[in-house]
Amino acid sequence: MKKSSIDTSQQLVNDNFDYAQMVLDKALHDFQIDRILKGIDQSLENRNKDEFLRLTDELKIIRKQSFRL
After folding, report:
1. Per-10-residue mean pLDDT for the chain, 69 residues long?
2. Domain residue ranges in the chain
3. What are the CA-CA distances from residue 33 to residues 18, 44, 50, 52, 62 (Å)?
4. d(CA 29, CA 49)
């Protein structure tokens, strides 16, 4: 049975939506890592051990999530 053009169009929309979602997820993930790394650098400059440890723990969590993206 031949697919209708409506079914094909809907599939293209769904595929494009999925792709756009992946791009946005990756951009957000990269932004979060960049923000954390800048915070880590700042905590090192300020010699703030507690902030450094908090941010490195957060970075570990974010990086583990990257394997699921």
Report:
1. 72 89 93 97 98 97 77
2. 24-69
3. 23, 16, 19, 14, 7
4. 25
